Amino acid sequence: MQSLRKTLITVAMLGAGAGVGSALLVIVTPRGQRKQEMLKEMPLQDPLRRDEVTRTQQLVMDVLQEAATTQENVAWRKNWMVGGKGGKSA
């Protein structure tokens, strides 16, 4: 009888803990409109920001591709937008 009582108390405590945790999760989770506002504020949702990131990635890939095909140390360039000799372009 003692073990049954102990088991019931344990199950009740675990259930109460799970209930409190679930209630807190529901309270702090943003709802529909707030969630949409948060998504709009994310950096990659802005078309201009997306274009900027795409352009930056393309520039990096171009430099890496050029570095793979040349003996020049492109890391020493002052201006990566312009190709050149001797490590100092501009």
TrEMBL record:
GO terms for biological process: ATP biosynthetic process; cristae formation; mitochondrial electron transport, ubiquinol to cytochrome c; mitochondrial respiratory chain complex III assembly. Its main location: mitochondrion. InterPro entries: UQCC3 (IPR027896). It holds the Pfam family UQCC3. Keywords: ATP synthesis, Membrane, Mitochondrion, Mitochondrion inner membrane, Transmembrane, Transmembrane helix. GO terms for molecular function: cardiolipin binding; phosphatidic acid binding. GO terms for cellular component: cytosol; mitochondrial inner membrane; nucleoplasm. It is found in: Mitochondrion inner membrane. Required for the assembly of the ubiquinol-cytochrome c reductase complex (mitochondrial respiratory chain complex III or cytochrome b-c1 complex), mediating cytochrome b recruitment and probably stabilization within the complex. Thereby, plays an important role in ATP production by mitochondria. Cardiolipin-binding protein, it may also control the cardiolipin composition of mitochondria membranes and their morphology. Belongs to the UQCC3 family. This is Ubiquinol-cytochrome-c reductase complex assembly factor 3. It comes from Saimiri boliviensis boliviensis.
